[in-house]
Write a structure and sequence with these properties.
By secondary structure, the protein is of the alpha+beta class. Helices cover 54% and strands 12% of the residues. Strands 1-2-5-3-4 form a five-stranded mixed β-sheet. The longest helix has 59 residues. The radius of gyration is 26 Å and the shape is elongated.
Length: 230
């Protein structure tokens, strides 16, 4: 009888140890998850602050840009860049404004080590819905891409050394900035029946994406929670 009681006590202790270990592992995963969420929330706040500061600084200089899509996109209208229909080059008369925008973006990112919260900043070109058959048949896709390239090349060539964007690296040590074109696929007006509506879509968007939790880490957390509940 004594031996059976001893075995029973050992079994109970082993079970308690197992439960304690599971609870500890779950607590660790929950802490990790909370840290991931906190980092994500901080990154979202920092991004919103950056775009607000850029917009205010430019507005004080008489340059009106828009902040859209949940404080993630800085939209530069064609009026600031001079993009007439079928055009993509930034003329000399628009260079000063374009460089002021680049400097404001650089200052906002460099402030308080905010670079750690950013994954990629996309320089996105857009067109109106008028068919374009130039640029060796690349059409509106090519036109939108060349608009983004035109702005990027200006920044690359003429921004001062302390405001350069091409040297910025994200937390994975990769170039922060990327250039792309969307053609007419992302209009900002419901219709394009007049020149004002058409011009509104000939624009450059600067899209700020933030660092996010790794999917593998989230899967580990989910697995740990499932195991603790089984």
């Amino acid at each position: 009888m004594t031996s059976l009681l001893f075995i029973f006590i050992l079994a109970v202790m082993a079970l308690m140890l197992q439960l304690t270990q599971q609870q500890s592992a779950l607590a660790d995963q929950q802490t990790k998850f909370s840290e991931q969420v906190s980092t994500l929330q901080t990154a979202e706040v920092v991004r919103a602050q950056m775009l607000e500061e850029i917009q205010k600084e430019l507005k004080a200089a008489g340059i009106e840009v828009l902040v859209t899509e949940n404080n993630s996109v800085l939209s530069i209208p064609s009026a600031l860049l001079g993009f007439d229909a079928a055009s993509y080059e930034i003329e000399k008369s628009y260079e000063k404004v374009s460089l002021s925008i680049g400097k404001a973006i650089s200052r906002a990112i460099h402030k308080d080590d905010r670079l750690q919260y950013l994954d990629t900043v996309f320089v996105e070109g857009h067109t109106d819905n008028v068919d374009f058959d130039g640029l060796e048949g690349t059409g509106n896709w090519g036109l939108s891409t060349f608009r983004a390239i035109s702005l990027w090349n200006l920044w690359d060539e003429k921004l001062p050394e302390d405001a350069r964007l091409d040297t910025m690296l994200n937390v994975e040590n990769r170039p922060l900035f990327s250039v792309s074109g969307y053609g007419q696929t992302r209009p900002v007006t419901k219709s394009q029946d007049n020149e004002k509506q058409l011009a509104a879509n000939r624009r450059i968007d600067i899209r700020f994406t933030i660092t996010r939790p790794d999917s593998a880490d989230l899967m580990d957390i989910e697995k740990a929670i499932q195991e603790s509940n089984s």
